[in-house]
Amino acid sequence: MARALSSELPGLDDAEADERLRSEGFNELPRSGHRTPLDIAIDVLREPMLTLLLAGGAVYLVLGDLKEALILIVFAGMSVTITLVQEARTERVLEALRDLTSPRALVIREGVKKRIAGREVARGDIILLGEGDRVPADARLLESRNLLADESLLTGESMPVRKIVADATHTAGARPGGDDLPYVYAGSLVVSGSGLGEVIATGPRSEIGRIGQSLHQLETEPPRLLAQTRRLVWLSAAAGGIVSTLAVVLYGLLRGGWLDAFLAGITIGMSMLPEEFPLVLAVFMAMGAWRISQARVLTRRATAIETLGSATVLCTDKTGTLTENRMSVAVLRTRRGRALHAREKPHEPLADEFREMVKYGLLASEPEPFDPMEKAFHNLARDRMAGASLSPHWKLVRTYGLRPELLAVTNVWALADGNSNVFGAAKGAPETIAELCRLGPKEVSGVKEAVETMAADGLRVLGVAKVSCPKAALPESPRDLSFEFLGLVGLADPVRPSVPAAVRQCRSAGIRILMVTGDYPATAIAIARQAGLDAEEVLTGRDLESIDDAGLMRLLRNTSTFARTMPEQKLRIVQALKADGHIVAMTGDGVNDAPSLKAANIGIAMGGRGTDVAREASSLVLLDDDFGSIVKAVRLGRRIYDNLRKAMGFIFAVHVPIAGLALLRLIFGLPIIFTPIHIAFLEMIIDPVCSLAFEAETEEKDVMDRHPRPPNDRLFSPALIGWSLLQGTLVLVLVAGIFVSTLQIGMPEDEARAVAFLSLVVSIVSLILINRSFSASLITAFRSPNPMLAWIVLAVAAIMTLSLSIPSLSALFRFAPLQWDNVTLAVVTGLIALVMLELLKPVWSERLRS
Ligand SMILES: Nc1ncnc2c1ncn2[C@@H]1O[C@H](COP(=O)(O)OP(=O)(O)OP(=O)(O)O)[C@@H](O)[C@H]1O
Ligand SMILES: [Cu+]
Q: May I ask the CATH class of domain 328-492?
């Protein structure tokens, strides 16, 4: 059978595929772990705030205050709605991200190769499978080049199984498991080789669908932050519970009136409960993942958002991350040392002496190349050898793939006319090709010298060789063939223009960059220099073999460039760095990179050239493979964390005056300042809305000029809590002062309450303004626009105007109409808070930023 070139297969056309997707459904499995409305409802009902609101409503009902009772029940309804809307929004954002992180499939439709989402694969689609791919759907193989699949997800069997091409004797219906089946199954993994198949079953009709397994799940919880937040909520709730109980008992005993006592207790409980924390955290994480996705980086694990800000080392590979991965042949050098700078006269036909090596380079590549190096060979042959491509008489009979211990690709071809000899073409690392050709020491040193010269310009150098042997005598390893050396090819791959600036940013942000590449040492150094990395010294994988872990840890403190490394060595590097106390981000793309991506604190996979396995093991996926995007993500991670701290500090501060006023009233026997309605209004509308302003806040001026945050830093540091207490206490003193003094000069209670409430709301807005930036002054912060904040301030002003001017609302809040001078008084009180805190801020800002 002649090798079916994939371009000869037309595949489905788009209309057909759409039609099948409509009638048979998308290629996806019912998702487990999806929360049902009942789960969500139970969660919502467990919110203590809801219980408090309902209890308050019940007390009012017993007291016969129907209106108050209704209002609290309405607030309870709002609490439920806010939670549900929030859940739905978070779920939607996560859903969108899940779609993007779901595996992609390479299919042929209407004769062209296309990358589509895995869920859009339809029955009848022709799929292309390569090493590291997750098989998107069950398929019958039409072509298999040494295809090995890991079907452990379906069979539990961890040994990969061999796949063969289907012929007429195979009937459908074979089950997974065992060697030499012509089928591949959804959810299994291509461990090596490549192939082409026709989809026979998708979604729930696939084998995995029948077992009812589910695949990828996006982890949604940021464990450390969530744990810290939960702890704080618990502590506050416990404290609130104790204080409220005490208040109820004391009030009941001393003043009688148990219902009033309950109401007072509920007020205190509500005012001390920081129920906004988890809500705000959820919003920040979902919005954070969205913001990071705008920088073309997908978040697979929400933990990455918090870890990004403390990353101290970034290990990056070279090809495609630092460079563009667009290769072109720059230099050809024959065995005799004749060199041609291929880019000088790009369209002139090649001189005869260079043709053979290009031809064998081409034969050592895939007929339809995906690898940029192989594309470069094809391009050169097309442009300068009059389109010499593989003649139809050639037939590929055997491929020896790239292996970590043998960095070369060998293709063996037979002529269709039945000649008993076959022709092997090899290309690969020059050392390896020299070894395959069994070059003598003198020639080896000559080749080495030539490679060094080419590599010093940052070129990737490949050796090319040929061999011919009887068809029957093909050995297991290409080492057993006697190759003839043809020459060296230097491939240029420019450094991405964004890289040097991104490297500089990392430097000022205290993040070290290590380059860990599979390429030749001299090439690694040249590219490292072009990228602006430290490149005094380079260590190779071979060097690492003779060093123990402790030695490696020491070496890593000074060496930043690693060449000819193998994936296991990447893992050792990650582990040694972690043992040295670093927070490690590591990029990777291959199947073998998965362990090091998992081991790193932040595994970063490539969306473009990466394999599904690498993506599944990582917590971030770069959509455009660009190093610059990693730095953007780090920057965003730091900003998100800063803003989260600001929001948390703000909420903490706001609770101080609210709870304080409720307590003061009890202690000093003042008239009722705030009822549960005021508190519900403040805590359920004003606060959460205000915290959103922080999410949209622009980054601190020094985000990328300070050192990474220590990984065990607490979100609620003592400095932050102290600052919040200070702010809250100041507002408490001012508002309580206003309330008491207006009462003293004989102002009616309802008017004094309105003044106090208004001054509290103005103070809350002041707190937002103060906390927008840890470091910048109010005026500087004003210059960086935050449209969200402007809207929020307008909304708060509108709400306050309405509640003071519409009689029915005023009655509800027990506000008397305010004269202008009293409005001014309230606003001025809030502004005093603003000015005083602005003056105090410099004292704390140093501590807050560290
Ligand atoms: N398709 C190929 N044909 C021949 N040789 C190859 C091929 N791909 C890689 N090599 C050889 O193997 C070496 C290591 O390749 P490997 O893929 O490990 O590096 P890499 O991952 O591309 O580099 P980096 O770590 O910079 O991304 C290359 O320098 C090259 O000599
Ligand atoms: Cu609260």
A: alpha beta
